[in-house]
Protein: Putative dehydrogenase
Amino acid sequence: MIRWGIIGPGRIAHKFAQDLKHVEGAVLMAVASRDKGRAETFANEYGAKYAYGSYDEIVACPELDVVYIASPHVFHFEHTLLCLSANIPVLCEKPFAMNRLQVETMVESARMRNTFLMEAFWTRFLPWTHKMLEIIESGAIGKVMGLKADFGFRANQDLTQRAYNKDLGGGALLDIGIYPVFLAYLVFGMPYEIASHCTFAETKVDESTGMTLTYRDGSFAFLSCTFRAETTSDAVIYGEKGMIFIEPRWHESKAFTVKYQDGTTERFTFDRPTWGYQYEIEEVNICLREGRKESDWWTLRDSLNLIQILDAVRNTMELVYEDHDDVPTRPFKL
Structure:
């Protein structure tokens, strides 16, 4: 039995805890919040044995095998290091941290302590993602030449809310733009050039961002994200012999269609009774049982590469989180 703890009982943590109930051999043991009453309410709802009013208390819990960190972006670095310092394995929500320097420190700490660490990029573990990669690698749609992906919804326009709060790591890029960037990385790897354009909110975070990533072989990715409007939130991967259309909302999709040049199509469906977080939970459980310190499907190198691309996009936007970017984000290099 893998005994889980949760730091930060917010909206995503509720979805995670619901899906945890569908995973055989896993149980929610403890939850921590700065508000103990909130932790107790969450623990009662999901059957956790312990509820803590501080994060120092949860890492002292003797009945934990791993902690899921679901606090706001700006606390991922601090909370991950807190758990690793106690040699507690960590699954930390995306974005892994605010910049590559922080992610490098997290990775170095995990490796120094020989402790498991993984970014909770749940989309990587969904069944459609595995099938999509299988089709691409088979050559069924030929060499992949392009990709288009967006993610947009109309967020609460109250500028005091987290999405617009710079002190909490707000902004469309790190919150939802990370998904299109992830897909481009998964399909193409590291880009050669990055260009972007964004509009800023009054709080000086990006409200809408468009990105163009180009690669040495001539392929490209057109990506966008916005808090201003409900978009189609679909994705298309273009190959020389066909294309893959991932249905909305593509990052949590249950279906995609392959369209071939000869006019034929294939539709693949992936029904599930859950939000979809159980797949990353199962991967962590397998890694812990096998004594592995990182996932083969989403490695620490992948997380380092992804944050490097995000840093590069921020550089082109001149978006700086003053209280968290201890040094300027590094110029993008392959």
Notes: The chain has two domains: 2-121+277-297, 127-274. Residues 328-334 have pLDDT under 50 and may be disordered. Residues 112 and 207 are 38 Å apart (CA to CA). DSSP finds nine helices and 14 strands in the chain.
